[in-house]
Amino acid sequence: MPNGVAGFFIIEYSPQHKRHNILEVNMAQKTTERKILVGISGGISVYKMCTVVRLLKKSGARVRVVMTRSATQFVTPLTFSTLSQEEVSVSLWPGDAHSSTDLGVKHIDLGLWADAMVIAPATANTISKIAYGMADDILTSTVLALRCPLIIAPAMDVDMYLNSATQKNLSALRERGYFILPPDEGELASGLVGPGRLPEPEKIVSFVEEVLKKIPRDLTEKKILITAGPTYEPIDPVRFIGNRSSGKMGFALANAAALRGAEVTLIAGPVSLQTPKNVNRINVETAEEMKRAVLSHSKKADAVIMAAAIADYTPAHPAAQKIKKSGEAQKGLTLEMKETTDILKELGAQHNGALLVGFALETNNEIKNAMEKLRSKNLDYIVLNSTRNEGAAFGSDTNIVTIIGKNGAKEKLPKMPKFDVATEILHRISKKLAAKSKKTAR
């Protein structure tokens, strides 16, 4: 296209003759075939993606590639078409001589087709566009249409990577539930040394496989209700009593459950986290609002996971107007408190058939207190963590928990990211629900 001429073009490369080689024989022997969508944006490390595509194919995956126009300046679409033995999409628009005659809505079709998508190298520009929901090319449009896990591998010069804008965008994408593969450190194309190198192909493929292992589609058609965050109990229209819960554990559970195919309802207290994709979020503020929402939505749930830190007490007589200081004569403020409804205990007493999972944050006698909560509230599992464990503090991205079953079996997990803790909890819920379905079918 001549300089100064605006617009996009489409290139769809489809090899007419497939070679029957050892790779194809190996692929034919696979009973299941993962579908991996590879998104490539323009960076010097695009050449590494040739090996990534080859390794994914060798592992038995079916691979399709989408490229930004700038990526084609480094490696041609024909190269990736040859390696993937599939069409390579470079634009949203039909019209090129190599285009398929039945394109459909390309980005929608790709978003529905994939079991996972990996974007590598992900440039600062592409990361920014994804963070802000832009859809001005085939790659970013496909991201918005995805129904599968998205893996992003940033690669750029060190100062671009460490720039606060890039780091803010990456944080936003993590909150949204996307998986970020951090760049390697080393010498960069500019000659500078630091973080920004695209990891080696084997590391990228290993990361993709690790994500897929964490997210089996074993909760399809299951309804999961999850609570997250704190509650705020009003003292007056300005002040409240609350706690330090960030909501990160509950949001990680919601994201992991949705990725496993569940229909997820997330009832969230006042937190600033972004809603994970394909999750129905209901915002509440007080323990009373949380109670009404939970009791309403738990009736059709297959499992209820109460990860929220709901207040045990609330002011008995919140003031209608802001409480003012009245000078030296007033030496303090006395509040009369009343207990809030124990939502989890009420759910356990109803016995409506839903699997019940509670959380226990303890400061002493951890196991004893958690076991008592498990028994008294008729739970199937309780997840115990302690404020004394380093790496399990409020607002942390990691957690250290012990999962205790109804039969008293205990399993202490090592420190791990909260998403990984969520997958461990959901593994147990999935097995329990599957056993329950099998028993009902008899």
Task: Describe the SSE topology.
Elements: H1 22-28, E1 35-40, H2 48-58, E2 62-67, H3 77-84, E3 88-89, H4 106-113, E4 116-122, H5 124-131, H6 138-145, E5 150-154, H7 158-162, H8 164-175, E6 179-180, E7 184-187, E8 193-197, H9 201-214, E9 223-228, E10 233-234, E11 240-241, H10 248-259, E12 263-268, E13 279-283, H11 287-297, E14 303-306, E15 313-315, E16 337-339, H12 343-350, E17 355-362, H13 366-376, E18 381-386, E19 398-399, E20 402-405, E21 410-412, E22 416-417, H14 418-441
Parallel strand pairs: 1-2, 1-4, 2-3, 4-5, 5-6, 9-12, 9-14, 12-13, 14-17, 17-18
Antiparallel strand pairs: 7-8, 10-11, 15-16, 18-20, 19-22, 20-21
Helix pairs in contact: 2-3, 2-9, 4-6, 5-8, 10-14
Please explain how this structure is put together.
The strands form six sheets. An eight-stranded mixed sheet has the order 13-12-9-14-17-18-20-21, with helices on both faces. The chain has a six-stranded parallel sheet with strand order 3-2-1-4-5-6, sandwiched between helices. It has a two-stranded antiparallel sheet with strand order 7-8. Helix 2 (48-58) runs parallel beside helix 3 and helix 10 (248-259) crosses helix 14 (418-441). With 442 residues, the chain is of the alpha/beta class. The longest helix is centred in the C-terminal third of the chain and has 24 residues, at 418-441. The N and C termini lie far apart (65 Å). 33% of the residues lie in helices and 21% in strands. It has helices at 22-28, 48-58, 77-84, 106-113, 124-131, 138-145, 158-162, 164-175, 201-214, 248-259, 287-297, 343-350, 366-376, 418-441, and strands at residues 35-40, 62-67, 88-89, 116-122, 150-154, 179-180, 184-187, 193-197, 223-228, 233-234, 240-241, 263-268, 279-283, 303-306, 313-315, 337-339, 355-362, 381-386, 398-399, 402-405, 410-412, 416-417. The protein is built from 14 helices and 22 strands. The chain has two domains: 32-214, Flavin prenyltransferase-like (Rossmann fold, 3-Layer(aba) Sandwich), CATH 3.40.50; 223-315 and 338-441, CoaB-like (Rossmann fold).
